[in-house]
User: What shape does this take?
Amino acid sequence: MAEPLFHRGPGRFFGGLGPRAQVALCQLPLTLVVLVLAVITPFAWPSLLHSPLFGAGLALHGILFLACFLVPWERLPHRPYLVIPVLDFAAIAFLRNGAAPLLPGLAVLVVFPVIWLSASGVLARSSLVLSFLGPFFIMAPSAVDHLPAVTASDLTTVVLFPVMMLAVSLAIRFASVNLRLQQRELAEKDRELRDLLAASREREKLLETVLDATDVGIAAVDRSGHFLVSNSRQRSFRRATGADEAFPGQGHQLIFGQDRRTLLPPDRRPISRAMAGESFADYLVWAGEGPEQRAVSTAARPLVSEDGRLTGAVVVYTDVTGWVESVAANQELVSNVSHEFKNPLNSIIGNVDLVLDEADLLPPHVAKRLVVVQRNAERLMDLVADLTASASTTLNVHPKRTDLASLVETSLSSAQASAQRSHVEIAADVPSPLWAYADPLRIGQVLDNLVSNAIKYSPGGGRISISATADRQWVRLSVTDTGMGMSHEDAAKVFTRFFRTQAAQQAAIPGAGLGLSITRMIVERHGGSIMCESGEGQGSTFTVTLPAEGPPPAF
Assistant: This one.
């Protein structure tokens, strides 16, 4: 559909016309004035109909307007159409001098050809000369008619009017030059903007290609929740959840928790958490339902402006279905193997205990060897228990209001004998009572594990201290030793299953690398966290953070 004329700029409209229409349009204002003059002359000044000069002026104007359409200007070189405003001077001279003294003001019509010549941008000097000489020769006959009684007023009129037209021509010329300079600058800026726009589109296309080539879903949203950037992988995740593409985090979505059955509330969905300003990693959710359900690990980072305001967030989605299924299969295998180990080990330990009950009837060397069998069987049983706990995805925790000070005291009492054998001093600085919302059995297991590890990794003796701090929301227990310590890299991996430091292996310190992973599992099931700070030869500090109070009661 063609663009309406009133939506176009005058320059675009004029430039879209042909040469003949352009020439006619430039001549049209003067022609309209002359046409009106010709229509009203028989009624206002009938005597002018008998003036040959006046009639010649009207006729010449008509011929010039018809020439605008009839002459093939597009075929002629060097812009010959400028002869039209030059001849306009002659036509206006006929009109003005033919109508004098009834209409001496018709000389003002000369402003039309002066403007045309000055605004044409060509023949600069010639247009200035014509702008003076044209009006001069139009005004000169009136002064000649008064000879020899020419007055100063007559001479002033003959000279002043051409000077005024020359000033008009100069003003138009300067304005045209300035306008052309501005147009040139605007054209240059327009070209630069077009180049920038083209480069921006190329970069945007490259970014889209790179994002779509990645194996993770990426979405950037602004503070109001509108998508800024998203790739095809992320859009496929959203389609799997049945989400509305236009409104992130809103509406009904098939996003489930880790049990794969419980729908997450809107404020716990990854993109909603990100829009709220949260920063997180490894947040596992399940997208979709049925056979097509996928495990998705999400991470988010906020977008912050230079003045510190939250402007949006970036959320990354990674499909970890295969990894989750392989971990589940591995855990099932370990659980099955551990279960198969338990029965023969229980039988071995039970029978050895029965035999050792009558150790006085056995030769000393046989009893000694049976004790070794008993100790190693019990160690195997502990290892099987650790494997079972590590593989379990349903480690049960039953938190309640618990005094952690009593658990610390019990744990230290149990470890006292082992500490004395290793020449390790144990001290505690824990306020009593120290209330937390915890499972006493499981947290006792955590303390026993941390204290026993501190003793094991202090082979040359040393000191172990347990301290605690609390506020209205959290209770923090710290177990610090002065033992062998570990590097910062090892401290970051110490909670990984089966991980053991090279120093521990070289020192032949017994262990399977499961205790700390189980410890972290227990703490996280409480809604808390555990962290390790250590340095080689500087000892280690393990800090457990637990909730001070339970959730509010449901009504």
